[in-house]
Design goal:
heterodimer, A: about 110 residues, mainly beta, 6-stranded mixed beta sheet, about 40% strand, B: about 130 residues, 7-stranded mixed beta sheet, 4-stranded antiparallel beta sheet, 11 strands, about 0% helix
């Protein structure tokens, strides 16, 4: 499986909403509900923000939401805050033990203007 | 406190070997399936491989680029997971993270939602 496709960058002003897309195939996003999103600040480890397409782990703000349609998943951040500026990665379970069990997107850099 | 702490990274020549270690604490390690994820500097994340629990026969799976060269093992008596890296290539240069999946009650997302991460250990393959 190739990496999932994400836009290289997105930007928004404080208070606005942005959406990051994550395009896969019928072998990953299109087949499974196991899509996750991670936030990564510079020099830090990734942090799980969304799992199973649209669920938030305990402690993650409800300003973060996820969805999926066909082979494309999306992460929406509403009420943008300066602290949201980070890189965001999507991932999908593939079920493949011959290529890779989990595939990640290339990452999207979010800039809060 | 739930924690993963990697060690063992460093500079190694192409064709060389390295063993990374990951010490776990604050959760029931014996039940956990442990995953290694790597990140090339300035680039995206890449799933490397995973080892299941002893109950699941410590079954391992690997990404195609590392299969046959990288081996994951665990020592439940020490709450440790290891990544043995042989025949290293320049493409293996990356930050290596040890991770564990999200558990909600008895339902765990071992293979699809990585909640616990270490701080990473850097591996550089260069002559």
């Amino acid at each position: 499986q190739s990496a999932l496709t994400q836009p290289a960058s997105v930007s928004g002003s404080p208070g606005q909403s942005i959406t990051i897309s994550c395009s896969g195939t019928s072998s990953d996003i299109g087949r499974y509900k196991y899509v996750s999103w991670y936030q990564q600040h510079p020099g830090k480890a990734p942090k799980l923000m969304i799992y199973e397409v649209s669920n938030r782990p305990s402690g993650v703000s409800d300003r973060f939401s996820g969805s999926k349609s066909g082979n494309t998943a999306s992460l929406t951040i509403s009420g943008l805050q300066a602290e949201d500026e980070a890189d965001y990665y999507c991932s999908s379970y593939t079920g493949s033990t011959t290529l890779t069990l989990v595939v990640f997107g290339g990452g999207t850099k979010l800039t809060v203007l | 406190e739930v924690q993963l702490l990697e060690s063992g990274g460093g500079l190694v020549e192409p064709g060389g070997s390295l063993r990374l270690s990951c010490a776990a604490s604050g959760f029931t390690f014996t039940d956990a399936w442990m995953t290694w994820v790597r990140q090339v500097p300035g680039r995206g994340l890449e799933w490397v491989g995973r080892i299941q629990s002893k109950t699941n026969h410590e079954t391992t799976d690997y990404a195609a680029p590392v299969k046959g060269r990288l081996t994951i093992s665990r020592d439940d008596s020490k709450n440790m997971v290891y990544l043995q890296m042989n025949n290293l290539k320049s493409d293996d240069t990356a930050m290596y993270y040890c991770t564990a999946g999200l558990c909600i009650g008895t339902a765990c997302h071992w293979d699809d939602a990585f909640e616990i991460w270490g701080q990473g250990t850097k591996v550089t393959v260069s002559s």
